[in-house]
Amino acid sequence: MFRSSRVGSILGLTAAMVGCIALSGCSDDSGPPTLNWYINPDNGGQATRAQQCADASNGAYKVSIQTLPTDATQQREQLVRRLAAKDSSIDAMSLDIIYTAEFANAGFLRPYTAEETVRLTAGMLPAPIETGIWKDTLYATPIKSNAQLLWYRKSLVAQAGLDPNSPTFTWDVMQKAAVDAGKKISVPGARYEGFMVWINALVLSGGGQILTDPEAGKDAVPSMAGPAGDKAAEIVGNLARSSAAPSDLTTAMEEQARAVFQGDNGMFMTNWPYIYAAARTAVEEGTLNQSVVDDIGWARYPRVSADRESGPPLGGANMAIGAYSKHPDLAVQLAECATSVEKATQYMLDEGEPSPFSASYDDPRVREEYPFADLIRESIAQGGPRPITPFYVDVAGSVINTWHPANSVGPSTPAETDSFMADVLSGKRLL
């Protein structure tokens, strides 16, 4: 979870607030350079930010958008290959939050100075900032954030006499309600990163963690065996083997989960906020009845136990500067402009990707578009990141390999994961 002392010490530094230095120009050798910004795909929001910043820069730089593959793993592979070869053409990049520590530890990122950190993160929610920090230094500043919510069909929940916003509403209560109603709980159960998101959230919500001392790198201690990991395994295994599990659970990603939830048998779902806008769009396109959207309710991510608040899954992306860029100072200016609260708020409206800034959720336009804006802000602020480790790929791969398929998970799974992960981290076993 977020360590306030670390970020607080960085943000507590005094520095004058400055805006983006406005620059723009041509890309030939005699004029201002073109900065290459590698992004994860969207509907044009980051390209819009880039153009706005170039236009506002009074001629110092242009920006060329280089779009990476949709899959986060493929994004990582492309960037790692280039940066390992010290590619100077990578000026800025949008990194999935799970890879910041790996890239920083490898020396691929230019760290932000203390003064830059103050300017870049002022007004941001704490948990997203934590995902960009490695060993007390900010290497990547949040450009967008996210947190999963619990979605439910209001009519079915009312029939069951339940309140998903109640502190007593837990995964066990939710499963029993779905079984009793003959309905389904949609969760990401495919062999991919979303499955890791689910497992990590359960462990964190139970008061545990997948990895102890992640900054120790390969010497970090796998720590799934214990009360939190055991309860997570119980929830995953019991749900997967129950009648509340969708038939496609072992292959279900976010969109498959949404399809089941919006169908006749859907009752509950854990998923990102985009699903609400997607449902409304489906109504406009004539592929979904308005009655389904009217029946969708929302609540904080479910608790593991009634006496402890959940740790909602945290997502998003961070903007980092390439260590080998020929124009690092200009790239920092681009980052300061592109990650401003105004642009993050507009991106949330245009792309459906939540902002890392608290103030965005008070914007009347956001509140109209997202009637659950306060819940998103709360969930991000108190969200639980996946392990911040330079060996995240090994850690996540170990968990996914030993927990998939979900119906195979049992009491011995957490200890088996710890053993498997320890071997992978030490080089005794390959994924």
Structural notes for this entry:
It is a single chain. This protein is an alpha+beta fold. The chain has helices spanning 4-11, 45-55, 72-84, 100-105, 114-121, 126-131, 154-160, 171-181, 193-205, 227-240, 254-262, 274-285, 290-294, 328-338, 341-351, 364-369, 373-381, 392-403, 413-426; strands spanning 34-39, 62-67, 92-96, 109-110, 133-134, 137-138, 140-147, 149-153, 184-186, 211-212, 221-222, 266-271, 296-299, 314-322. 43% of the residues lie in helices and 14% in strands. 51% of the residues are buried. Strand 10 and strand 11 (221-222) form a beta hairpin. It folds into 2 domains: 4-146 and 315-376, Periplasmic binding protein-like II (D-Maltodextrin-Binding Protein, domain 2, 3-Layer(aba) Sandwich); 149-311 and 391-426, Periplasmic binding protein-like II (D-Maltodextrin-Binding Protein, domain 2, 3-Layer(aba) Sandwich), CATH 3.40.190. The model is unreliable at 1-28 (pLDDT under 50).
Topology:
Blueprint: H1 4-11, E1 34-39, H2 45-55, E2 62-67, H3 72-84, E3 92-96, H4 100-105, E4 109-110, H5 114-121, H6 126-131, E5 133-134, E6 137-138, E7 140-147, E8 149-153, H7 154-160, H8 171-181, E9 184-186, H9 193-205, E10 211-212, E11 221-222, H10 227-240, H11 254-262, E12 266-271, H12 274-285, H13 290-294, E13 296-299, E14 314-322, H14 328-338, H15 341-351, H16 364-369, H17 373-381, H18 392-403, H19 413-426
Parallel strand pairs: 1-2, 1-3, 9-12
Antiparallel strand pairs: 3-14, 4-14, 5-6, 7-14, 8-12, 8-13, 10-11
Helix pairs in contact: 9-10, 18-19
